[in-house]
Automatic annotation (TrEMBL):
<dbReference type="Pfam" id="PF00180">
    <property type="entry name" value="Iso_dh"/>
</dbReference>
<keyword id="KW-0809">Transit peptide</keyword>
<dbReference type="GO" id="GO:0051287">
    <property type="term" value="F:NAD binding"/>
</dbReference>
<dbReference type="GO" id="GO:0004449">
    <property type="term" value="F:isocitrate dehydrogenase (NAD+) activity"/>
</dbReference>
<dbReference type="InterPro" id="IPR004434">
    <property type="entry name" value="Isocitrate_DH_NAD"/>
</dbReference>
<dbReference type="InterPro" id="IPR019818">
    <property type="entry name" value="IsoCit/isopropylmalate_DH_CS"/>
</dbReference>
<keyword id="KW-0479">Metal-binding</keyword>
<keyword id="KW-0560">Oxidoreductase</keyword>
<feature type="domain" description="Isopropylmalate dehydrogenase-like">
    <location>
        <begin position="4"/>
        <end position="328"/>
    </location>
</feature>
<dbReference type="InterPro" id="IPR024084">
    <property type="entry name" value="IsoPropMal-DH-like_dom"/>
</dbReference>
<dbReference type="GO" id="GO:0000287">
    <property type="term" value="F:magnesium ion binding"/>
</dbReference>
<keyword id="KW-0460">Magnesium</keyword>
<comment type="similarity">
    <text>Belongs to the isocitrate and isopropylmalate dehydrogenases family.</text>
</comment>
<dbReference type="GO" id="GO:0006099">
    <property type="term" value="P:tricarboxylic acid cycle"/>
</dbReference>
<protein>
    <submittedName>
        <fullName>Isocitrate dehydrogenase (NAD+)</fullName>
        <ecNumber>1.1.1.41</ecNumber>
    </submittedName>
</protein>
<keyword id="KW-0520">NAD</keyword>
<dbReference type="GO" id="GO:0006102">
    <property type="term" value="P:isocitrate metabolic process"/>
</dbReference>
């Protein structure tokens, strides 16, 4: 079987890290047909569209995407390509597993939690306008439909993955109607899953609790903006965004992506860390139900980190992007690679 995958290399370091991830995924022996498209400023230069029609059609056709980072202008310019794709294809669930890699020293060894973020509304609806000069109004949209849908997703995910606890994160002490609706939907869904412990924490307290004791959490369920902020904080617990995978799941399509930026200052130097995109590729393999291949890539990445001889500069090494991918590929092909037998749906 050949898997047709929409590939969005991105810009900055995107083409380098996605190229490394593609080589690693192909080393599993699975067959892929990559449909590659530009997005953002590069796409606009070619097609006069930030998200070309051909890219949309490809995602509609393949229903699976692997994406590198795309630069988003700050304070002006075009809208976030990430946000636009999530809204366009109703990629309503953003999933970010947060787990330590062997050999990466952090303050908190053995962290194992998952951030589940509503991906289509909240303040990220992008509904804002200037009321009068110097006064801007931004609307936060929370609906019962979306809040119930993401809550149902989180509890189904917990049941499928053998997780035991979910905390719904909110600011309902201040935003009593919008955040209040979000947690009421979470509470209602929690009643259908009596085997899963349900709790609620205020978002600012959650940030403090995470840096004091992240082990108290299992799955964090958040609306859009809180999820974006808290998931980056959680990535910092295990080594940073260069290691953190991400998945955007919907009924029509799913896109797997590195959650870090495009780092234009080091673009083209072959020094960026491709781990986040590779681990996102592992999530993609699990989504395709290619569990053996996913487990082998995961074991290979862990082997390279555990050995510690071929790490990129951000991890204290001198290995290039392409050389790191070479070592992961070499480990995948090694007869001596130890592939543990984790739960079938074990994350990246």
């Amino acid at each position: 079987m050949t898997y047709k995958i929409t590939l969005i290399p991105g810009d900055g370091i995107g083409p380098e890290v996605t190229s490394a991830a593609v080589r690693v995924l192909e080393a599993t022996g699975l067959k892929f047909e990559w449909e590659s498209f530009a997005a953002g400023a590069e796409a606009y230069e070619k097609y006069k569209e930030y998200i070309p029609k051909e890219l949309n059609e490809s995602i509609e056709r393949t229903r699976i995407g692997l994406k590198g980072p795309v630069t988003t202008p700050i304070g002006g310019g075009f809208s976030s390509i990430n946000v636009e794709l999530r809204k366009r294809f109703e990629l309503y669930a953003n999933v970010r597993p947060i787990r330590n890699l062997p050999g990466v020293h952090t303050r908190y060894p053995g962290v194992d939690l998952v951030v589940v973020r509503e991906n289509t509304e909240g303040l990220y609806s992008g509904i804002e306008h200037e009321v009068v000069p110097g006064v801007v109004e931004s609307l936060k949209i929370i609906t019962e439909k979306a809040s119930t849908r993401i809550s149902k997703f989180a509890f189904n995910y917990a049941r499928k993955m053998g997780r035991k606890k979910i905390h719904s994160i909110h600011k309902a002490n201040i935003m009593k109607m919008s955040d209040g609706l979000f947690i009421r939907c979470s509470r209602n869904i929690s009643k259908e899953y009596p085997e899963i412990i349900y709790g609620e924490h205020i978002v600012d307290n959650t940030c403090m609790q995470l840096v004091m004791n992240p082990y108290q959490y299992d799955i964090l369920l958040l609306e859009n903006l809180y999820g974006d902020i808290v998931s980056d904080l959680c990535a910092g617990l295990v080594g940073g965004l260069g290691l953190a995978p991400g998945a955007n799941i919907g009924e029509r399509a799913s896109i797997f992506e590195a959650v870090h930026g495009s780092a234009p200052d080091i673009a083209g130097k072959n020094i960026a860390n491709p781990t986040a995109v590779i681990r996102s590729g592992i999530l993609m393999l699990r989504h395709l139900d290619e569990q053996d291949a996913a487990n082998r890539v995961k074991a290979a990445v862990h082997h390279v980190y555990r050995e510690g001889k071929h790490l990129t500069r951000d991890m204290g090494g001198t290995t290039s992007t392409s050389e790191f991918a070479d070592k992961v590929v070499e480990a995948i092909h090694s007869k001596d690679l130890v592939v543990p037998a984790p739960p079938v749906q074990s994350p990246a």
